[in-house]
Design goal:
With 484 residues, the chain is α/β, with parallel strands linked by helices. It has 16 helices and 22 strands. The protein folds into two domains: 270 residues, 3-Layer(aba) Sandwich (Aldehyde Dehydrogenase, Chain A, domain 1); 188 residues, Aldehyde Dehydrogenase, Chain A, domain 2, CATH 3.40.309.10. The strands form six sheets. Strands 15-17-18-13-12-19-20 form a seven-stranded mixed β-sheet, sandwiched between helices. The longest helix is centred in the first third of the chain and has 21 residues. The N and C termini lie far apart (68 Å). The structure holds adenosine-5'-diphosphate.
Length: 484
């Protein structure tokens, strides 16, 4: 199945500006999670393909791409963004088929991908160094320089958005990139590679090699020719990648998910909060790093919030991506089994509401009905561990101190929100919450492209999005000139 209208063969990899099968010629089927059918085959790249991709990236970095000025790089990115938007229907369809994401959510991801290109394109020629007052007779200044060849390991949940925030920032700052998309969902990564090529990105500046994590992924992250690694995915894989990066002593950005809370106080505008409380849990079927899986509610409004959330859950319907309901399938049967395993561990809990899997959803699809639990103890596994499915728990609290202790009481720290009309409380909690982003009276599920994003604890380290991403993809050189 060629990827239309771009005419890419998904059994090919993009290396040095050319599409070709991987060295072994091996492929694996890509599954449509909405019905379990095989969508197409993809290339199973391996160590030698990664070697060639890293060499091609190095040549681009040492060649025309490395010599391009910030404004020239920005123009190429602008063009990529424009081509992404021109192909919005096709890209959204590919993402929907591949990830199982409802079409409307997939379209939003295409727009976000284009926005990353626009933002980084416009920002990169404003990325200034500093002059530093120093000894008499000296002029000292700093230069922000690209790392060189960057490796990008992308997960399956938001391929386009994560490519945008990571590859976009790397290219904007003049790095050359090797992208390894997830084996569960990689069609839009291939399409992005082709669009970037058509936008005039020089050969080798972006290489896309699909394959398994154990082979292509590990080959990329342990490659001695890679100067920076960015990874979004599970904690376990993040540990392996940090170890690989440690061996080569290269910087690594890890975004590993979370158990993000929303804190709802007695004085909150409950009706304004409600759509955020629920959507942040079920968006992309809960397979979102910044999903809000814990809802902490003060006792004065507890019954009201529980009742109103339950009502919304009762109206949630899950079905095929193309049916464009609130919830699609999970990405795979494996992910469905993981989520069902958690639900089994919640058998002792008070499940107060469940959405519906529509009756005509194909039996081979990876569907799980969204589930809402209340009265959950903060130390229960469903309140501590990342589930990556459409499951939320509601936890009661008495006062601000208890809310804070519960909110900070997991190993993660990615996103949090506070719903309250008390400005002083908002400020106190914004400081005290252990979280890379804090939203006050809203919940951004990762926020916009302009907003720095990343975590602490098991959520990882390093910041993506916004100007911070551009800093992260550069290293600082200090130049001290003595002129007397
Ligand atoms: P999941 O378990 O949900 O699939 P992972 O974190 O394992 O999530 O996968 C995210 C990305 O990491 C995918 O692109 C996958 O191929 C890649 N990956 C998995 N294992 C490794 C590894 N050992 N080294 C490098 N990349 C890996």
């Amino acid at each position: 199945m060629p990827i239309r209208p771009l005419d890419i063969d998904p059994t090919h990899c993009l290396i040095g500006g050319k599409w070709a099968p991987c060295d072994s010629g091996k492929t694996m089927p890509l599954i449509n999670p909405s019905d379990g059918s095989a969508l197409c085959d993809i290339a199973l790249g391996g160590a030698t393909d990664i070697d060639r991709a890293v060499a091609a990236a190095r040549a681009a970095f040492d060649g025309p791409w490395g010599r391009a000025t910030a404004v020239e790089r920005g123009r190429v990115l602008q063009k990529i963004g424009a081509l992404v938007l021109e192909n919005i229907d096709e890209l959204a369809k590919l993402e929907a088929l591949d990830v199982g994401k409802p079409l409307t959510q997939a379209r939003a991801d295409v727009v976000a991908l284009a926005r990353y290109m626009e933002f980084y394109a416009g920002a990169v020629d404003k990325l200034h160094g500093q002059t530093i007052p120093y000894l008499d007779g000296y002029t000292v200044y700093t230069l922000r320089e690209p790392h060189g060849v960057t490796g990008h390991i992308i997960p399956w949940n938001y391929p386009m958005q994560i490519i945008g925030r990571s590859v976009g920032a790397a290219l904007a700052t003049g790095n050359a990139a090797v992208l390894k998309p997830a084996e569960e969902a990689c069609l839009t990564a291939l399409a992005f590679g082709e669009l970037a090529r058509r936008a005039g990105l020089p050969d080798g500046a972006l290489n896309v090699v699909s394959g398994t994590g154990a082979e292509a992924g590990a080959a990329l992250t342990s490659h001695a020719g890679v100067n920076h690694i960015s990874f979004t995915g599970s904690v376990g894989t993040g540990r392996l990648i940090q170890q690989a990066a440690a061996h080569n002593v290269v910087p690594v950005t890890l975004e590993l998910g979370g158990k993000s809370p929303q804190l709802v106080f007695d004085d909150a505008d409950i009706d304004a909060a409600l759509p955020f409380l629920v959507n942040a849990g079920i968006q992309n079927a809960g397979q979102t790093c910044s999903a809000s899986s814990r809802i902490l509610v003060q006792r004065g409004v507890y019954d009201e919030v529980v009742g109103k959330m339950a009502e919304r859950y009762g109206a949630l319907r899950a079905g095929p991506a193309m049916a464009d309901l609130a919830v699609g399938p999970l990405v795979s049967q494996r992910q469905k089994e993981i989520v069902e395993g958690f639900l089994a561990k919640g058998a002792d809990l008070n499940k107060i509401a469940k959405g519906e899997v529509i009756p005509d959803a194909p039996s081979g699809g990876a569907y799980v009905a969204p589930s809402l639990f209340e009265g959950v103890s903060p130390d229960h596994t469903l309140a501590q561990d990342e589930i990556f499915g459409p499951v939320q728990v509601i936890i009661p609290f008495d006062d601000e101190a208890e809310a804070l202790a519960i909110a900070n009481g997991t190993a993660f720290g990615l996103v949090a929100s506070v719903w309250s009309r008390d400005g002083a409380r908002q400020m106190r909690l914004a400081r005290a919450l252990r979280s890379g982003q804090v939203f006050l009276n809203n919940y951004g599920a990762g926020g916009g492209v302009e907003l720095p994003f990343g975590g602490s604890g098991l959520s990882g380290h390093g910041r993506e999005k916004g100007f911070e991403a551009l800093y992260g993809f550069t290293s600082l050189k200090t130049v001290a000139a003595y002129h007397g």
